[in-house]
Amino acid sequence: MSLFERMPDVAFRLMSLVMAVQDFFHPYIDRRVATFGIREKMTVVDYGCGPGRYTTRFAKLVGPAGKVYAVDVQRLAIQTVKSKMRKENLGNVVPLLAQGYQSGIPDQAADAVCALDMFFGLSDPAAFLNEIHRITKPEGFLILDDGHQSRQETLRKMKAADKWEIIMETPDYLRCRPIHPFNGLPW
Fold this sequence. Notes:
By secondary structure, this protein is of the alpha/beta class. It is 36% helix and 22% strand.
């Protein structure tokens, strides 16, 4: 099963245009990203990267010693990110076309995973959260927003997956850490 039913290219282009207009008239992405806790040398995953509006910001924050995986199920999203990488000379971005819920990222590679404006569209949120758990370091974190669903629905899906502990809740997003069998034990 795929994350979303793949949208037609024309719908992706329209979505990208709407985002570009929104960013032009209401530039909030940089302020939002500044609250995520992303720093130099981190490995960050922009899951559901779309046209790369967050990917480029993450790449600049982690710097040349860091890495950003830009993951999406939409081929056009990956092509768009590759184009932005060339245009902005960002050599620390690895675009990946997800195969269903399989990202292609190695186990425990990510310091941070950001899943923004996409969780609401998943047909199997537990499978997605399992994949994110697999790729996140034990001390890593997940930034997850509600997108086009209620916070109550997001929390219900998170609880059902039983892989994540919510460590911070803001009106804008949840910050979560992976639950591992030995988290919190003194040895």
